[in-house]
Amino acid sequence: MEELHEILKARTLPELYAAEDAFLAARPGWEVAFRRYFLADRAAQRAEIRPQAGAVSYIGQAPLDGSGAAVWLFLVRGAAVTRTPGLTLVEADGQRHWWTGGSVSGNGDSYAQTGDVLRRYISFLEERGMTLPDNCVRTWFFVHDIDNNYAGLVKSRREIFETQGLTPQTHYIASTGINGSPVDPSALVQLDAWAVEGLPAGAQRYLYAPTHLSPTSLYGVTFERGVRVDYAGRAHSVISGTASIDSRGEVLHVGDVGRQTDRMVENVGKLLEESGAGFSDLQMALVYLRNPEDYAKVAPRLAQLLGRTPYVVVHAPVCRPTWLIEMECIAIR
Question: What is the pTM of this model?
Fold first, then answer.
C-alpha cells in the first residue's frame, strides 16, 4: 500500500470542496482514508458542510495564513477501501486500518462527554475483535474551551484507561489533546481515532526521548509521546502533540514563542531520531498556535523546517496556558 498526504486551503468551504474534488480527480487510483477540515468560523460554516461517507472530521480551528478553511487528506493506493458514515476501513498487506472521525456527545460536561465517546469507541473495537491497548494507534481529542474543560477530559480518560489496563506500568496511546470546537454546539469533546487490526506482536514501539521529555504520567495525563508502527516494507513514526517541555515535565521559555518553537522542534527531532526517522521523512505536520498574533513570528521558521511537507498552522490553544505552540506529525520510512 502506498500513502499520500495533502493539505489544501481555500477562502471558503465550498471553494475548498471544489479544490479537493479537482485534486482527487487528477489522481486516479488514490482513495481517501481520512479527512479533517479546519474551519475558521465553524458556526457560520456548519450550514455549508456537505454529507460525505467515511471517516470525516470537522473542527473549529482557524488556519492562520488567512484561509477560511483547510483540509488534511490521508490517501492510500493499492488497498481496498470501504466507507460508511463516520468510518473508513482500509485493507492492505494483511492489515485492516479502521479510521473513525467526528465522534461527539452532547450530554453533560467534558468529563461525561469524554466518557461517552471513549466507551462507544471501546465497544466499537470490541465488536470487531479488537482492544484499545492492542489495536488503537492514534487518538485526537478536541476540547472546546480547553482552559476550562481539559481537566474533565483528563480525569475521565485516565479512569477509563485504567479499566482497559492502560497505566504508567503498561503503556498509553499516541495522542493530541488540543483546543478545537466541534461543529455541534452542544459538544465539548470530539474524538478522532485510528486503529489497526492484524499487527504482529511487537509491531508498536512507543517513543519516549527521555533526555528531552518526561513521561506524561509525571504531570497527570495519559498519552504516549509517539509510536513507531512496523508494517510490511515500511514503518510509521506517529508523533503526538509536542510542545516546549523538558525531562521534568516543565514548560520551557515561558512567554517566548520563538524559543518555544525551537525547543518544540528539538523535542520532535529527538522522538523521530528514536524511531529511526528524521524530518526528511515527514509526510505531514499540524501546528497549533495559542495566540494568532504570533503567527508572523513563527511562520518563517516553520517554512524553513517543513519545506514541501504538507502542513497547516491553526489557532488552537494548547492544554497549558503557558504553552504557546505545539506540533504533531507523521513520518514514513
Answer: 0.97
